[in-house]
Amino acid sequence: MMNIRKIAVITAEKNDFTNMLQLQKANLAFFAPDANPNLDEYDAVAVLGGVSEEPLLLRARTRNAVEKQIKAGKRVFAEYVGSIGHVYCAPPVSSRYERLAVCADGVIDGLEAGELIEDQCNMRLKPHSIACSHGLPILQYVKLHAHDRVEMTPELTKPVSDRGLWFDTPDNLLICSLRLANFAKARFAPRRSALKLIGFILEWLLDGPADLSGATAAYSVGAERPEAPLAEQIRDSADRAVRWFERSGVVYDEGVTGALEGPGTEIYPDGTQRMSTIRRVDCIGEIALPYYLNHLLTSDRRSLDIADNLQRVVYGEFQCKDRDEPWYGMIRWTEEAWGVCYQDDVARAILPQLLKCLYSGTTEHLDDIAEALLFLVRTTGTDGTRVYRTDNIGLTPEKIEQLRSEPGRMPSAHYNGFYYAALLLAYRLTGIGEFRVTAIQGMETMMALYPDTKREQSQTQEYCRLILPLSWLVWETGEERHRDWLYRVAGDLQKFRHPTGAYLEWDEGYRAAMRHEIGQGESSLISRNGDPVIDLLYSNNWLPIGFIQAYFVTKDPYFKQLWEEIAGFLVSAQLRSDNPVLDGAWTRAFDAERSEVFGSPADAGWGPWSIESGWTVGEISAGLLMGLLEERLLPHYEQGSANKG
């Protein structure tokens, strides 16, 4: 490798790219953006503006020094610079819903035309067409719903304003329109492709090979002790997940005032990640479950206290206790959507306390839960399904009567699966017959249409969300046809199984409703069946609890094996990082073959890097802990052991 290159670096501060330059043992000299440098003695120049929010606009004296080197034929790399050579740009825009596409084979070694690079919630400049080379760029921004590649066409590469990396005139000027300087902190993905990109730029500047072996990463994945038996790996994983809640700041006062929704998908160019500070009742309730189960496993009193604190918030702050209101008993969704009720979210908020009642014999909050479910039953249709949500603004007594006197027409596990599970468990604990009748009727309606239930995100999601309610349906009725349903769904799910033990997103016929225009609403991760993308927000996250509960009910080792397989995958997909916001968590999207966070950014709210505290970390860690507590929990599932009435 060449070690005599002298490179002038003009930047406001050192960054990931300069760290990589220093690893090449090049002779570097740093200059401030407003310096008056003599650059004649340097072989190449790197102008790095991406360390700042505003694009770098060189002072005239600095600009003259750089332009002199361009004219002399020296190699100049200009990153996030508002004007360089003949090029000048419009103000920066976000790349939140766009990704970089490789424009041609062979330009960047190891990358093919159409491969996608995710630069997260970045900022990019839009060069003016009149002042820019019109040759084929190296990277071009595209806005297409795809997993990891697109078919490049002349139409995609034509818009000059969308180019990300290109050689301009003269051809010794390499321009990058995006903030690339802190590519590692910003978690450019896939990591291999991002490093190929950085290597290409380094080798061009150095006019020789680049050593990428010292590149750092913001996170890794996998077990703390990969050599340990699976049970020990699962315990380590569950422990790290429980610690994540407080280390990340999601649980901040031992649960006394609830918990936050969790980190959003937006990773900014400096590596910081948006934190959603919304308090959602489903997340608050779901987080209580791993804390309670951790108490059962470790006898840690503090975990029990946090679980109890979180449950008190659910029933003491979010439940309507005014008997004069037609929505008495309703549990509200968030402090913002105060009049909104999603039954499946309510179900996941109350299931932790129902399970505590089952496992400990307590009746604490059981009356509150009964009132919450009676409200939901009052607003459930004649077919046993409930409309996807209710809003109090129109929920008059007349409207409630209408809802209960006509079909809900919502045969969807996404909206009603956990609702039925909560009804079945609540019936075993209270003996309220309406709960059993409604749950069975709803499950009958849904399974009469299966596999053509109403899909929201994917077919995979529907199957995953059916495992728990079907397990408890078998537990309650013992009917052979209900048992057949459980085994059929579990068997059908295996069609989407990946060798890692996880289940690919799949949707035969592409009928899922959540396939909106990019950035215009919620969106599935699916672009093409068979892509190696795993969804840990809407699909696989439900399986640890689902499979272990199926095992508790049936005692069939088949379900225990399925639990072990999904648990093993989740151990391998758990984030490890010095960043406490990441360490111990799971994200929505995971590429099972690349073994990293990567997926389509099309969803406006919950993209690849969103870390939902309840739906994802809460549900997964609870399912892992349940398996570890097998011997203690199994006796509660003996037929006829319910404490009805």
Low-confidence stretches: 641-645
Task: Please report the total strand number as a whole number.
Answer: 20
Share in helix: 25-40%
Strand content: 5-15%
The secondary structure category is alpha+beta
Radius of gyration over C-alpha positions, nearest whole angstrom: 28 Å
Cα-to-Cα separation, first versus last residue: 78 Å
Neighbour order of strands in the largest sheet: 2-1-3-4-12-11-10-7-8
Q: Whole-number average pLDDT?
A: 96
Q: Count of DSSP helices?
A: 18
**Cα shape:** elongated
* Biggest sheet overview: 9 strands, mixed
Description:
- The protein is an alpha+beta fold.
- The protein contains 18 helices and 20 strands.
- Helix 2 links the parallel strand 3 and strand 4 (75-79).
- The protein is elongated, with a radius of gyration of 28 Å.
- 55% of the residues are buried.
What descriptive keywords fit this protein?
alpha+beta, 12% strand, disordered C terminus, 9-stranded mixed beta sheet, 645 residues, 3-stranded antiparallel beta sheet, 18 helices, 20 strands
Short summary of the structure?
This protein is an alpha+beta fold and 645 residues long. Helix content is 39%, strand content 12%.
Topology:
Elements: E1 6-11, H1 16-23, E2 27-31, E3 44-48, H2 60-71, E4 75-79, E5 83-84, E6 87-94, E7 99-102, E8 116-117, E9 123-127, E10 139-142, H3 154-157, E11 163-168, E12 173-176, H4 191-206, E13 220-221, H5 230-247, E14 262-267, E15 273-276, H6 281-298, H7 301-317, E16 340-341, H8 343-360, H9 366-378, E17 390-391, H10 397-405, H11 413-430, H12 433-449, H13 459-477, H14 480-493, E18 533-535, H15 543-554, H16 557-573, E19 575-576, E20 589-591, H17 613-628, H18 630-633
Parallel strand pairs: 1-2, 1-3, 3-4, 4-12
Antiparallel strand pairs: 5-6, 6-9, 7-8, 7-10, 10-11, 11-12, 13-19, 14-15, 16-17, 18-20
Helix pairs in contact: 5-6, 5-16, 5-17, 6-7, 6-8, 6-17, 8-9, 8-11, 9-11, 11-12, 11-13, 13-14, 13-15, 15-16, 15-17, 16-17
